């Protein structure tokens, strides 16, 4: 594809950074001693730090780069209330792990997923975070008639979920690509960089020490607590929370074996004008689909651009290469955008787990939260908050703490198998579309 898809002012960085760029400031050096150390300054880490500090705990947050450089400001800003919880990428039905939990266990997870949405909404209001937060709902487009039937079965008794037949989908999206879908009313959207910046400001108001450019290199048991090693000195502390998610390295090898980092890619179009942009998604909802190689998209908060994302490559690829792939996919959904140019292209790591579920827990006394499988704005915020309650001595456990966190014998640190899995998923998606085009009901 020719480079004429790129705007002259093209940037290989998130569109969101136009509003809140990464913050390299070190409020101060790491202290020699504090009550709790948080490793990772994203949504989970900052939520944990904020809640602990509100309870009188002296907290230090370590970030390996500038604050706001990681995945928390690289996502699309879609906010789920849990409807997709545990959905395997090869199916619009529940993952096997959820089926094994039974209805009671599944219900407990759904309740907490709903609580994650409540937590985010309450937090934004309490801390007066200006981040373009709004509840517009979400439309899930069905790749094939069979996918539509599965969505309809799943949502038949779900409150606030409406089935949208293909004949009616233009009320949701100006595209013939999908075979109907569902509209979920309780779903939101925000500017993730502004939300992240607001969390940092809230932490500073509570006296949290934020230390940028300072990775944790090792954690050791020491004198009834922990010693956290950094390039800028060691920290003695009573508790440690690792919130590195899709950027989890060797600090906790047990956790690294249970997290699969996978790149997800997003492009932003040049301004389309409010009328043209709003015609694409009349309701202003966020949109995703039932493809195994997922697409997800929304309008920018000012209603003038399309932000289009997906997992277009399962190998490392640069921002221009991913933009070309995403542009092709975007035109399959919206052929009317032919000729529109791209102003931004970026990527961030999504943390997958083998059971497609988020996890919260502790290993050797080190607390962690990880694995939201691409739906992490509300859930990672909530899991960070719940980790803080546990670290502060709370007795109530989360349903996500009670889950077994599986590993696989063939995986250590490098997800060598993901290109093979990705190619297989792409083949399955293409085969399903061909069958749907010929009227094959399977």
From TrEMBL:
Keyword Oxidoreductase found: yes
InterPro entries named among the record's database cross-references: FAD-dep_OxRdtase, FAD/NAD-bd_sf
GO molecular function: oxidoreductase activity
Keyword Oxidoreductase among UniProt keywords: yes
Domain FAD dependent oxidoreductase: 35-386
Top-rank taxon, per record: Bacteria
UniProtKB keywords: Oxidoreductase
Residues annotated as signal peptide: none
GO CC annotations, alphabetized: cytoplasm
PANTHER family: FAD DEPENDENT OXIDOREDUCTASE DOMAIN-CONTAINING PROTEIN, SARCOSINE DEHYDROGENASE-RELATED
Protein name (database record): FAD-binding oxidoreductase
Top-level taxonomy: Bacteria, Pseudomonadati, Pseudomonadota, Alphaproteobacteria, Hyphomicrobiales
